[in-house]
Each structure stands twice: as structure tokens, then as C-alpha cells.
Write a structure and sequence with these properties.
This protein has about 400 residues and is α/β, with parallel strands linked by helices. It contains 14 helices and 14 strands. An eight-stranded mixed β-sheet has the order 3-4-2-1-5-6-7-8, sandwiched between helices. It has a six-stranded parallel β-sheet with strand order 11-10-9-12-13-14, sandwiched between helices. α5 (about 135-145) links the parallel β5 (about 125-130) and β6.
Amino acid sequence: MRIAMVTRQYWPAVGGVERVVENLGHAYVLRGHQVTVVAQCVDELHFGRMTHVIRERKIFDAFTHHGMSVVQFRPSRARRSLLLPLAAELIPFGGRITRHWLGRYSSAYYAAVVDPVLTPLLRGADVVHMLGSNLLAVGAVRSAHRLGLPVAISPFAHVGEWGDDSGSVSAYLNAEKLLATTRADADAYRSLGVPEARIEIVGLPVPDAVAGLDELSGEPHGEPMAPAPPAPVILFLGQRRPTKRHELLLAAAELVWERHPDAHFAFVGPGRPLPSERDPRILDVGRVSDQARGWWLQRAEVLSLPSVSESFGMVVAEAWSQSLPVLVSDIPVLRELVEVSGGGIASAPDRESFADAICSLLDDRERCRQMGRAGYEYWARELTPDAVAARHLAIYRRLIEERRASASP
């Protein structure tokens, strides 16, 4: 099967969608399929809607990664000049009009302008899989259909924040299948008007988080690690964005220390540094390699994710790949994950509740181990790249067969 995966950013840019494309595409290659990744960029910068109009991304040469061909979708400067009407969003009140009243029409205009650039990159595929939303999603669906190709779309939307504009919704309604991560994620798309019959729940592909560790030393190849802090370690792993609410965990630490004074809190991932004057039991690790992520997951007692908005929570599955129990905020997607797996606790996202939940886990290490084992079993059964790829491939095959049947005289 020849699969075209369309995305805004791809490796070496770092992010959740980038990891999904990499893990899923690599699993396809291992199963003998031909994969082309069509990406706008591979650099890790803020990606605004007006990037398409005012500041296009850096040019990159086509390359191969994990057996996948990676090519760039980049309209010329002359073609981007045709998109200047979309810059009305930058005018006070213009953005509101464009996004909410005329969004469907402006996104259709965008798709028509970029179609001559996008169509050649999709030609030769059997199926197109769009990962993301907004203008590029509308363009990918239009160009694929002009080639007679079926389209599946994984939006990763956060309703109320992004992915619920009228243009994105039109892409969801026109794609043959919308692929949701969980039941809660699927509910969000139903609320936007996507018919039940078009939605499939497929999970996300998450590899073993320590696959790159040296089996003898337990350390990442070529990356010496500092001594592990005294146990127990409560781990925050991810970007320090407002929706991740790492500061909630920071605030809960003082309450935890009243019962567990030896507990350490490690904050691993990019973002604004923590205050320089802080308790030595607060570890500001910062950005690390993929191998070091696994190293921390192996050494932690609990992973904590106090997010107020998630479309899945890949770090939760990464923790389960190492039999690590999780403490997550009680929002629909994360609550569903811990309920169906038994791999952790969902808590109200406030300082006192998180501190009580952490202490309850540290008070009962056997319960911790049982949750970690349950999480691992769920990950091994449902969320490995091969398991998730198998579900996607079955959907692709059905779409291809249905497209061929509808095209037959």
C-alpha cells in the first residue's frame, strides 16, 4: 500500500503530532508499505495560521527517515501572495469575521490556491492520511479528492482552543473517516456534527520508551546521566505550556512533603525554567533526548500529568510502557484512559487533591505496582505502534476498496 501522511511539522521538530507520524509511519514501513510524509516544515517554531501568508517556513531538501520519504509542501512566494486576503485576521475584528463567519469560505479559497502545489505531492498514493486540522486539512482533503483518493483525518483538536473552526469542521465532514484517539475524543467531534458512522477510535502509537537504552548500563548511548535522585520521584514529563499546568504539581509538593519528606519532584521537558531559589527536592531537568526520557520513566515512582486539556496524553502511554502508574487530572480523555486500563488515578486538578492522590500512592507501594502492571498490559495490548498501525491499515483498506467500488461502472 502507498500511504501519504500530511502534517504541518515533522521530525526533527518535536511534538505530539510529530511523534505520531513518526511512530505510525515507521510501523507501516516495517509491515512492507510505502510511506511518504508531506510536511510544511521540520523546524520547531511557533506555527500560526498566518504562516501560510506572511512568513513561510524554511526550505528543506527531501530526505528519508525510518524508511519514509519526507517531502516539503511549500507554495512559492508568488502563490502565497494570492493568499493575502486571508490576512484580514490580523485586523481588529477581522479575525473574528474570518474565523467564525467566513472561515469555511476562506479555507476553501486557501485550498484552491495551494491545490497545484499539494496535488503533485499526493499523486501516486493509494490513500491520504491528514494529521492535524485548520487550513492544511482543508487543502489535503480537496487535493486528495481531486486525485480520486480516499482521506482519513486525525484532527487532534482541543475543542474550545483549536481544531473547531468552521474550516476544520468542513474538512472533518468531507473526509471519508475521522480517526479519534478515545471515546471522549470522538464525543468532541460528534458535538461538531461529524456523523457517528464516519468516526473510528484507533488510539495512538506509543513505542517502548526505553528502546534506545543500553541493556548493560541502563544509560542512553553516548549520553552520561546524573545519579538518580533518592526515591521516590514524582515525574512531570512534557512541555511546560499553560494547559499542562506543571505549576499545580509544584504547588502540591509542599503538602506532599508533610507526609513524605523524602519525595523528589522532577520536571523534565522544555519550557520556562523553574525559580532558581527552590527546594533541592525540586529538580529542573529541562529538555532531554528521547533516551533520557526513558531513563527518567524507569526511575520514577509516579508520572503526574495535571493537564486541563488533552486530545490523548501520549506521555501516559509512555509511562505505562515502563509499568509506571500515572496521576492525571480528571478531564474526560485522561479519565477514560485510567478507567479502561486501571493504570492510575484521575484527580480534581487542584493542589490539595493532587497532593492527597500522590500521598495515597506513596503510602501503598503495592497498589502502585499493581497499577503500573495494569497500565503496561493495556499499552502492550492496545497502544504499541504495531497494534495501532494494524487498526489504521484495516481502515485504509476499507476506504480504498469502497473508493474503487464507487468508481466502477
